[in-house]
Amino acid sequence: MRTMKAGEFKAKCLKVMDQVAESGEPVVITKNGVPVAQLVPVGDKPKSIVGALRHQVTIKGDIVSPVEADWEAAR
After folding, report:
1. What are 3-49's pLDDT values in tens digits?
2. Contact yes or no for 38/44 (Cβ under 8 A)
3. DSSP letter assigned to residue 28
4. Cα 9 from Cα 37, distance rounded (Å)
């Protein structure tokens, strides 16, 4: 993982962002030798939220009709 001083990052910000996007290698930005931030490439977003949980959830029975159970809160 590459490390860079904050002042150097400020001067070369756009170039460093392009390098991180291309290579996928994160860059740690330091201030007075202490790590304060990490620049990482953005992960792939799902194209649509519709269907994101496909095959993760199983519906059993009728999910629309009211439940005919006796609840303690209803007493």
Report:
1. 999 999 999 999 999 999 999 899 999 999 999 999 999 876 667 77
2. no
3. E
4. 11
